[in-house]
Design a protein that fits this description.
heterodimer, A: mainly alpha, 2 domains
Chain lengths: ~240, ~100
């Protein structure tokens, strides 16, 4: 009885890993161009290959790496401003973390700590849909996170190697890869009226402050202004 | 590795990890406050917009709304492809090809 239980639960574990691998494949493939872009961007920002790759290994956060690299490339090397921007960009993880907290808090602490390090938008989206379809599975989350982590690092390395063969990536317009990839993330978010208002506000404030303010301050100012407008509208709608 | 870049990478890693583990510790018993939830909800739209739009409208640091601005033209096409396909590879492929062709002429 115990033996058959063991065998069936072992089969279930294998099945869970298999489902996770199958479901994360399209997302993992979608991450590859981001990773390659990250590697190339690191070089265009005059970072060394080791610096770019170790950022992918220990930070492991696409959007904030792009922003961090862009800021470093344009000569912004202030520790505070880079760290503040990274914090702002990643604040959304607090929401994803709190949404997963009821499930993750059941796990042993080292596993919680590891899964938290590997938490990304992609993992969150897949894990939540797994919860809706079946139930929460730490093994599922771990499999998806690990695949994304490995592919992110490997594609960053590929970008660094690839970028080394192109004398000046900027003349080829490779820096266009950043806004293009962000567009794919942004457009599905513009699904309701408030999001469109937030988009317009962020676009207007960003262009104006990019014209009149030094450096990349426009990112923070536009983000704060537009997201607070969104929050206020959301509050007004809920009270209406 | 340069030490200033090293400290920045370490700082980015620490602050990122804080956001990822923070909720598990912070909202363990209370849940996310409604006002914070409302604000955070629109942060992704705001920050992505703030990154994309100036890089298309001011690629060289000044406002350039003309046919000579390759970033703007490729950006409009890429936005259309992204809207229709929701596909990173298609958007990146078509956007970069247009960029490449525009650079040739």
């Amino acid at each position: 009885m115990q033996l058959s239980n063991l065998i069936s639960s072992k089969n279930e574990l294998v099945e869970e890993v298999w489902v996770a691998l199958r479901e994360c494949t399209p997302v993992v493939l979608g991450v590859v161009p981001f990773g390659i872009t990250c590697g190339i961007m690191g070089l265009t920002a005059r970072m060394s290959g080791i610096e770019t790759i170790s950022m992918s290994v220990i930070v492991f956060a696409g959007a904030s790496q792009f922003i961090g690299i862009t800021m470093l490339g344009s000569g912004i090397t202030g520790w505070g401003i880079l760290i503040l921007t990274t914090l702002l960009v990643n604040l959304r993880h607090l929401i994803m973390g709190s949404s997963l907290a009821p499930y993750m808090l059941e796990l042993p602490f080292p596993l919680q700590a590891l899964l938290a390090f590997l938490l990304t938008d992609e993992t969150y989206a897949l894990t939540i849909s797994r919860i809706h379809k079946a139930r929460y599975s730490a093994l599922y989350q771990l499999t998806v996170s690990t695949m994304l982590y490995l592919v992110w690092i490997l594609s960053t390395v590929a970008g660094v190697v690839l970028g080394g063969y192109i004398s000046d990536p900027l003349t080829w317009g490779l820096d266009f890869a950043m806004p293009a990839t962000f567009l794919v993330l942004l457009i599905p978010l513009l699904a309701d009226r408030i999001s469109l208002i937030v988009f317009s506000a962020a676009a207007g404030v960003a262009v104006l402050s990019a014209l009149y303010l030094p450096g990349k301050w426009y990112i923070i100012i536009a983000c704060l202004t537009a997201s607070i407008i969104g929050g206020l509208l959301e509050g007004a709608r809920e009270h209406a | 590795m340069r030490s200033d870049v090293f400290y920045i990478i370490i700082g980015m890693a620490l602050v990122t990890y804080f956001t990822r583990i923070g909720a598990l510790a912070l909202f363990r018993f209370t849940g996310v406050p409604t006002w914070l939830n409302r604000w955070l909800k629109y942060v992704p739209v705001a920050i992505l917009t703030a990154l994309i739009i100036p890089s298309l409208l001011l690629p060289k640091g000044y406002l350039d709304i003309s046919l000579n601005n390759h970033y703007l033209i490729a950006g409009i096409v890429a936005a259309f492809v992204a809207y229709r396909s929701r596909n990173i590879i298609a958007t990146l492929g078509i956007g970069m090809s247009i960029m490449f062709v525009l650079k040739l002429f």
